[in-house]
Inverse folding.
């Protein structure tokens, strides 16, 4: 899989992709992540990529020309399955979307900034808009990192135990059950007996019941 990220601040994205699972995925050759500084595609000597909004109002808008130039260059080199714009008014990211995106081969992610991008980019070049929550960030970089993390961990060969992702919260429409590890008794706080029984059938039943109950209490809208 290849992910190309268009950004005004590539420095914000360098650290997330240089550690843990995301770094391992790149080292294994499972995924390629390429950062494209938008200022490299600026059409003026000052390398600016924003301008005042037509009609007035506070805040700057990301210009159409450098974004279009960058996307056109990438599209001339390969075919992309999705060109995603990170936007607070996009569809809300959930596990179903992450699962679907993880099956794609090439995607572009455009990180918004300032007061957003020229609307013509959204109308003519963007194929999908995604939000990670009903709030506004300073830019789309952190949101893009969240999307990438949620996708990449699902790719075959990334996790040491590939079945692990199948039992994450939301994969089956419910929250994951509680988890415990050693010691079995800490300050009188004990691990449920069923988990120590070795009875896989009863353990699976207990975990399903716990997932169902937690989902009812904490995220009933998922049911």
């Amino acid at each position: 899989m290849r992910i190309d990220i268009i950004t005004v601040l590539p420095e914000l994205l360098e650290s997330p992709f240089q550690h843990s699972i995301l770094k391992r995925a790149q080292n294994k050759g499972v995924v390629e992540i390429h950062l494209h500084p938008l200022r490299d595609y600026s059409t003026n000597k000052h390398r600016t990529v924003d301008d005042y909004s037509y009609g007035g109002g506070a805040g700057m808008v990301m210009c159409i020309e450098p974004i279009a130039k960058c996307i056109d260059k990438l599209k001339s080199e390969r075919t992309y399955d999705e060109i995603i714009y990170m936007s607070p008014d996009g569809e809300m990211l959930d596990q179903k979307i992450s699962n679907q995106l993880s099956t794609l081969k090439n995607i572009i992610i455009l990180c918004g900034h300032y007061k957003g991008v020229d609307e013509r980019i959204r109308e003519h070049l963007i194929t999908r808009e995604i939000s990670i929550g009903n709030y506004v960030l300073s830019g789309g970089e952190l949101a893009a990192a969240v999307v990438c993390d949620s996708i990449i961990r699902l790719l075959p060969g990334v996790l040491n135990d590939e079945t692990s992702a199948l039992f994450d919260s939301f994969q089956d429409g419910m929250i994951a059950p509680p988890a415990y590890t050693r010691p079995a008794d800490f300050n009188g706080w004990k691990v449920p007996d069923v988990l120590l029984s070795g009875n896989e059938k009863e353990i699976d039943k207990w975990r399903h019941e716990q997932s169902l109950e937690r989902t009812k209490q904490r995220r009933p809208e998922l049911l």
User: Anything to note?
Assistant: The chain has two domains: 2-152, 169-222. The radius of gyration is 22 Å. The mean pLDDT is 93.
